[in-house]
What we know:
It is a single chain. By secondary structure, this protein is α+β, with helices and mostly antiparallel strands. Helix content is about 55%, strand content about 10%. Among the domains are: about 5-120, no CATH class; about 470-600, no CATH class. The strands form 2 sheets. A 4-stranded mixed beta sheet has the order 2-1-3-4. Strands 6-5-7-8 form a 4-stranded antiparallel beta sheet. The model has no long low-confidence stretch (mean pLDDT about 90).
Amino acid sequence: MSQGLPTLVYDGDCAICRYWVTYWQDLTSGRVVFRPYQEAATDFPTIPLQAFQQAIQLIEPDGQVYSGAAATFRVLRYTPGRAAWWWCYSHLPGVAAMSEWAYAFFARRRGLLDRLTKLLWGPSLQAERYALVSWIFLRLFGAIYVAAFASLGVQILGLIGHEGILPVGDYLEAAHQALGDSAYRYLPTLFWVNSSDTVLVAGTVVGVLLGLLVVVDRWTRPALIGLFALYLSYAYAGQIFMSFQWDSLLLEVGFLAIFLTGGSRLIVWLYRWLVFRYVFLSGVVKLLSGDPTWHDLTALEYHFWTQPLPTPLAWYAAQLPNWLLIGGTAAALIIELGSVFLIFLPRRLRAAAACCVLLLQSLILLTGNYNFFNLLTMLMCVFLFDDAALGRCIPRWFESRALSSAPRPARTATVIATALTLIVVPVGLNRIWQTFSRTDLPGLGAVTQAVAPLQIVNPYGLFAVMTTTRPEIVIEGSADGQTWREYVFRYKPGPLSRPALWNIPHQPRLDWQMWFAALGSLRENPWIVSLMFRLLEGSPPVLGLLASNPFADAPPKFVRAQLYDYRFADRRTHMLTGQWWVRRLEGRYFPQVSLADFRRAYGPSSP
């Protein structure tokens, strides 16, 4: 024993023993003395030589001896952030018995253990550290925040400004009248204080500046707190235009990022838990929905041309042979429902899971405009690697700079991260349970409801039902009720000869909502009424959301909306006409109206 330190005695002639001892030495950083029994056995005469030969022995400074799996878990008590393993061994029923059985099994089969270990962890095992991973993640995450706020800034007035489609001032006033003071709890937004157009725009500018602070690593934690509070405020103020799953995901990721700055490994694990929940639930909802296109693997035969905003590559993807599209559908389900479980396994399998998710997200990104969604998902996959893995991909000077500014894990950060884990993990389990059963796990319903307004643990699940047609709303205006001209949106399909466009990482939120509105009725999308009224008014902020204004001199006297069925043009049609789309009129979506009609229906005020 040396200087009152615990001593772990192992078989120095065993290759797999030396493999793990090297790893533990790195983990414990001098807090434990490691000695082969071939030289240390005589210093511990009370322990039989046969015991040293059969299992590792940990001798504590007080003389207490732990053997086998118990010694393994006990060693981890001397590693910051890993003491929970010993607690599980000591307190959870069955863990000790199973651990000792597994240890004895592999102790008799060291060759098998050696092959499995190197298969799962590689030829050498290093302590997994995440200072570099966390630093890179935060810098890139700051850039995603910048993109999100910049995208919001150029359209916020048209969406929820004073002359926008759904003015936030009217919304908050109505919410307070309906809910009273509880509205502040159910709608936690800073815009209760002031929701003027100036403040709405200024908030997006502040968001961009705070995101840049995170990018350049200045006042990172305060900036992240401000970013979360601001984006949460816009998530509620934006109403239907901020109701997307990626807005919820950005908030959940942003909330965890605040605590990531403390350096606790638990936050890294919580990010892995988030990646698992998001990807797994995306697969689960596809099967639970009963949608035939997922069950018969034909979903991708429709996806590329029916998705909200295809990219230019989507047209080419839609021309692929059916057998390849069926294989792609199967691969997506395998990744979301199968490979995602590798996230919780050792390093190499976890890296395989990351590669599967990255491949899937890359293909989605190439064929569909989902703003920052795919980029954010791919960025979270960085937590499925560690510093050693990333260190091989970046310059040494960059790694040194990142590590020099990384926070040192503190006990306070670990305590806070533990408390956070005790909320996030159970509520996350409840979110998964809700997806399967539509009920809450016992005792977790109230907790889930309590944290729901903060959007820090959210339900997920994309494309549960694949659309097999593409209805599109085409809005038209007229000065005389006879000649009609179309309003062209910036990104959604309109002119047949205009190809799909790129808009990543920007999200044109009106274009997206027009896609959803076309799938439902006018009764299900009452905000369309306000949009039509603003077009009759000639509202500059709303017109700014469109690609062009066909009535530049004066607003139209009448507007209406037609419903068309859009499809990608086939190869022959495209070659002959240059069209990327073909369409067929399905009927009327919104009747012909004028400002006089609105005044008769609503009086002098807007809808």
